[in-house]
What does this fold into?
Amino acid sequence: MRKITLIAHISLDGFVAGEHGELDGFDASEENLQFVTSLTENADTALLGRKSYGMMDPYWSTAKDIPNATEGTLAYSIWYGNAKKVVISKTLAAEKKENTMIISDTVNEEIAKIKNGQGKDILIFGSPSITQLLLSSALIDDYWIFINPVLFGKGIPLFVPSSNKANLKLIATKQFANGELAMHFV
It folds into this structure.
């Protein structure tokens, strides 16, 4: 069975973005990007919500072509271009884009089928609404939470109140030079 891993950057107060979806409070670094790229080595699928897909796809589909692109940018862009994209959306029209699948109904059931199918692991990037939906069916196996040294005060939370309790175990941490702390839970 394939494993689903959440990779999310959050503020110290638990937000994945500012109130209007802005990400300018996070200090991204090449060190961090190379680390995330190392997490893609065992995965062949990116699971995204409509908004995350809309932010990621235009950039990462072509980032490898940027003159003087960094090592991390090249590696991640190449992985992203080859990965199957599974996008959860009720409003996004079915695109005829290579390696992209749109799921709009029976999301948890469809994701469970994909998880039980052939292939490498599946990575969720951010996508708080998808994270919350999959948590309700215990479909997430693995969590990489990157805590950034910033307080947003308000914004889009990664986790919301739920009746589903999940006991997790911290198995690894990684400190980055920019002050970010990555924590790996199972």
